[in-house]
Amino acid sequence: MSARLRVAIASYGPNQFALISTTLAAFGHEPTVYLMSRSMRPNTPPEPDVFDGIAATISAIPAGIGLLLPSGPADLYPMMSGFAVDLLVVFGFNWRIPDDVIFAPRHGTLNIHPSLLPRYRGPSPIPWAIRNGDKELGVTIHRMTETMDGGPILTQASVGDLPEVVSHADTWRMMQSGLPALLGDAISRALEGDEGIPQSEEAVSDAPFPPAEWNEISWNQSRWDAHNQIRVFRFLHGSAGPVVELDGRRIQILRTSLSERRGPVVQCADGPLWISDHAPA
C-alpha cells in the first residue's frame, strides 16, 4: 500500500472533481481541497456557465473538502499553502498555473490531458482530434512544468474509439472508464520518484481554440476534410449543423458520408460527399 497523500484538485466542474476525488480515495489518498477558477479569464467577473459550475460544485462537494475560488493566478499559492498538500492534480483548469504552485507540493503537480501527447498540446485537444479524423481518444498524465502540456509523461493510453457522431457525453464516458486506472498508475510512479519520459519536441502538434473558419463549410477542400469539419461542428454546437445553400435552399447539414447514400450530394475537391442527414435552416 503506497503512502496516503493529501491531494489538491484543480478542475472546472462537479463531475470532473467527483471523478478525480473518488479515484484518489479508491487508491487510498485524501482529496483535501478543490481549486476552481472564478472566471474563464483571470480577474474578471464570472461568466454564466462558470457561475453555474461553481454553484453545482458547491452543492456536490463532500464534507471535509475545502473549496478555493481565486480571482487570479497570483492568489493560488497563498490560498493553497495552508492546506500542506503532497500532490496537486490538474484536470482542465481554466488558467495557466504559476511555477510556485506547480512545484510547491512535495510530489509535484500532475496534469491530465485528453490526447496522446505530444500530439495536441493546448486547450482544445478533443475538437482537433475530431477535425483531423482521429480514430481514438487518448489521455496522457504528465508532470506539469513551465511548458504548457510539455512535461515528462508518466502514463498514457487510448480510452476509447471516437464514434462517427461524437458528443460530449461520449467523450466523458470514455474518460470515466479509462482515467481511474491511468491516474492510479501515474500517482504510483510519482511516489516511486519516476520523473517521466520527456516528450519529443519534433512530434509536437498544437490544439488551440477552434478557429472561426471551422464554422464556414467549403467544398473546395477534400471530402475527408469536409466530412470531419461537419463532425466537429456538431460536437462543438450540440445537435446543430453548419448552414449551407444547396439547390436554392438553405439547410443544416447534420451528417455526411464518404460512401454513396440516398440524398443530396456535393462535389468536393477530390470527389463526391453524400449528405446523409439534414434539416431546414
Beta-strand segment tally: 11
Order of helices and strands: EHEHEHEHEHEEHHEEEE
Examine the coordinates and then state which fold CATH places here, giving the name of the CATH topology of the largest domain: Rossmann fold
At the fourth CATH level, what is the homologous superfamily of the largest domain?
Formyl transferase, N-terminal domain
Compute the number of helices: 7
Global geometry: elongated
Uncertain residue ranges: none
Beta percentage is 15-25%
Q: How many structural domains in the coordinates? A: 2
Helicity range of the residues? Answer: 25-40%
Can you tell me the CATH class of the largest domain? Alpha Beta
Write the CATH architecture name of the largest domain.
Answer: 3-Layer(aba) Sandwich
Strand order of the largest sheet: 3-2-1-4-5-6-7
User: Quick check: average pLDDT?
Assistant: 95
GO molecular function: methionyl-tRNA formyltransferase activity
GO cellular component, one term: cytosol
Pfam families: Formyl_trans_N (PF00551)
Organism: Spongiactinospora rosea
